[in-house]
Design brief:
Structural class: alpha+beta
Strand content: 5-15%
Shape: globular
Largest sheet: 4 strands, mixed
Number of helices: 18
CATH superfamily of the largest domain: Beta Polymerase, domain 2
Number of domains: 3
C-alpha cells in the first residue's frame, strides 16, 4: 500500500465505528395497550432499563424507562393496571445502524438521555444505553457535560474545564481518531461556554433570547484542539445600538475573562465579543463582511479570515443562520476577494524540499515542524476559499472538502484524501498538546510544533504524504487564481 492509500485507510478507531457493527442488544418491546405492571415485569425479567413501545405497524410510539417509573408512575401514584401509553416518553430520539458511536455519545450528552433506539431501514433492531457507550477513567462525555450544565458559578466551570482536558487525554490514549476527538472537545467546550454565558447574562440582567454568541476560527469549525485561544463575537438585537451596546460589552467582557480563567486564553488579536468591533447588530455584521469581501485589502483579510468560519454557540441561532446565508450568497461571485484569499494561501510554503524531504526549523534546540502554520492552516484556508467561491455554506473543514469534491466532480476518494491528510496533522497536534512537557516530540512553548526525530517511521511517512496533499491543493489554487 502506498502512502496516499495509507492515508485513506487511516483507522477510524473507537468512536468512528458504526452502530450496526457493534454487538446488538435485542430490544424489549410492548404494545400501546400493555399495562404498567406488565412492562415493569418485563424490565425485571430481562434486566433492562427501558422498554420500547410500538404502534400496531411496528413504528416507535414511545419509550418507558426507569426514570419514567419514578416521575410518571410512583410519584403521581399511577396504578399498575394503567396503560403504559399514558406514562411513556413520547418524544423519542433515535439513530440508525449507519450512525456512529460518536453520534450516540453526542445525542445522549446533548439531550440528557440514557437509552437510544437503533433503526435499520426504519425497523427497530437494537437499543444502546449510555453506559454501553463509554466510561473511561470514571469520566464520560455525559458526566462532564452534565457537570457543566449543573455548574452554579465560574469556579465550578473551571473544574469542568480540567475534566474536559483529562477526558481528551484519555480518549487520545485509547486511540480515538482526531475527527472524533476534536468534535467532542468542541462539543464539551460548547456546553461549558453556554452555561458560562447563562451565568454571565443573568448577572448583567440580559437574555440571550435577544442575541447570539458566535464562535470563530477552529471553534467555529468544531475543530478545537487543546491549545486554542478564544475567537468569538456577539450579534445583538437593538433599536438603538449605541445606547444598548455598552451593556452587551460589559457582559461579554465578564464572559471572556471567565473563559480565560477556565483555560481558554484571551485572543491576542482581540477577536472577542468584548471588543466593540465584534459586538454588533446583524446589519452591522453584514456591513463588516461586505467591506472585507468588496473593499478589503490583503492586510484586512489576513486578520479577517477566521471570521468567515463562524457558527452560533448560544442564543438565537437564527441570527447566525441569516448571516451565514447572506455571506455565502454575496461572496460567491467576487473574484477579487477569492484572489486575495488565494494569494494568502500561496504565501505559506509546505515544508517539503526538492527531493521530498521534510524541512525543519530549529525550536528550543530541536529540529521541529510547525504542524499548524505550515500544515493544518493550509487545508483550512483552501477549504474556506473553495467553499466561499462555490457558494457552499458548510463551516467544518471535512464537510467543506466533501462538498467541494461533490460540486467539482472530483469524486469521494479525493475528498477523503484531503480530509484524511488534514486529520492526521490534527492528530499529531493533539498528541503534542496532550503529551505534556518532556513527552517525546514536544517542543516546550510551541504547542503546534513536533520534533521530527521523535516520530516513528510510519508517522514520518504519513506526515510527508500529508504535506504532499497540502502541496497539491496549493498547486490547484495557483492554477485557478494565478494569472
Amino acid at each position: 500500500m502506498n502512502a496516499a492509500a495509507a492515508l485513506q485507510a487511516l483507522p477510524q478507531l473507537s468512536l468512528e465505528r458504526k452502530l450496526g457493527a457493534i454487538a446488538r442488544r435485542t430490544p424489549v418491546t410492548c404494545g400501546r395497550d400493555a399495562t404498567v405492571g406488565e412492562v415493569l415485569r418485563a424490565m425485571q425479567q430481562h434486566r433492562v432499563g427501558s422498554v420500547i413501545v410500538l404502534d400496531a405497524d411496528g413504528a416507535i410510539a414511545g419509550i418507558f424507562t426507569r426514570k419514567d417509573v419514578l416521575n410518571r408512575v410512583a410519584l403521581p401514584q399511577v396504578g399498575l393496571e394503567a396503560p403504559v401509553a399514558g406514562v411513556m416518553t413520547r418524544e423519542v430520539k433515535w439513530l440508525t445502524t449507519d450512525d456512529t458511536i460518536e453520534d450516540a455519545i453526542m445525542l445522549t450528552s446533548r439531550f440528557g438521555i440514557r437509552h437510544v433506539p437503533i433503526l435499520e431501514q426504519g425497523r427497530l433492531v437494537s437499543v444502546i444505553s449510555e453506559s454501553d457507550l463509554f466510561v473511561i477513567q470514571r469520566l464520560s462525555v455525559k458526566q462532564v457535560s452534565s457537570a457543566a450544565r449543573a455548574a452554579n458559578d465560574y469556579s465550578e466551570l473551571e473544574v469542568v474545564a480540567q475534566d474536559i482536558r483529562a477526558l481528551a487525554r484519555a480518549l487520545l490514549d485509547h486511540g480515538v481518531h482526531a475527527r472524533s476527538l476534536t468534535a467532542l472537545i468542541s462539543h464539551l467546550n460548547d456546553v461549558l461556554t453556554a452555561r458560562l454565558l447563562d451565568i454571565a447574562a443573568r448577572r448583567h440582567g440580559l437574555s440571550l433570547d435577544d442575541a447570539c454568541w458566535l464562535s470563530f476560527g477552529s471553534e467555529g469549525r468544531s475543530e478545537q484542539t487543546i491549545s486554542t485561544d478564544q475567537d468569538n463575537g456577539l450579534v445583538f438585537n437593538a433599536t438603538d445600538p449605541e445606547r444598548e451596546r455598552p451593556r452587551w460589552l460589559a457582559f461579554a467582557r465578564e464572559a471572556n475573562d471567565a473563559l480565560d480563567a477556565c483555560g481558554y486564553p484571551l485572543c491576542k488579536g482581540n477577536i472577542m465579543a468584548s471588543n466593540p468591533e465584534c459586538c454588533l447588530t446583524l446589519d452591522e455584521w453584514k456591513r463588516r463582511f461586505a467591506f472585507w469581501v468588496e473593499q478589503g485589502t490583503p492586510e484586512n483579510l489576513l486578520r479577517a479570515n477566521i471570521f468567515f468560519d463562524f457558527r452560533a454557540l448560544a442564543g438565537r441561532s437564527d441570527l447566525a443562520d441569516d448571516l451565514r446565508a447572506w455571506v455565502t450568497g454575496m461572496s460567491r461571485d467576487v473574484t477579487r476577494f477569492h484572489k486575495q484569499l488565494a494569494d494568502d494561501i500561496l504565501r505559506r510554503r509546505v515544508p517539503l524540499g526538492w527531493f521530498g524531504r521534510i524541512e525543519t526549523e530549529t525550536a528550543d534546540g530541536k529540529k521541529a515542524v510547525d504542524l499548524k502554520l505550515r500544515g493544518t492552516a493550509i487545508f483550512v484556508d483552501v477549504a474556506r476559499l473553495q467553499s466561499l467561491a462555490l457558494g457552499i455554506g458548510e463551516t467544518g473543514t471535512r464537510r467543506r472538502f466533501e462538498a467541494i469534491a461533490q460540486v467539482r466532480g472530483a469524486g469521494r476518494q479525493a475528498g477523503e484524501t484531503w480530509s484524511s491528510a488534514f486529520e492526521f496533522l490534527q492528530m499529531l497536534r493533539l498528541r503534542v498538546q496532550l503529551g505534556g512537557a518532556g513527552n517525546p516530540g514536544t517542543v516546550p512553548g510551541h504547542p503546534n510544533k513536533v520534533e521530527l526525530a521523535a516520530l516513528n517511521d510510519i508517522d514520518r511517512r504519513m506526515l510527508k504524504e500529508s504535506f504532499r496533499v497540502a502541496r497539491t491543493l496549493q498547486q490547484r489554487v495557483e492554477l485557478d487564481y494565478r494569472v
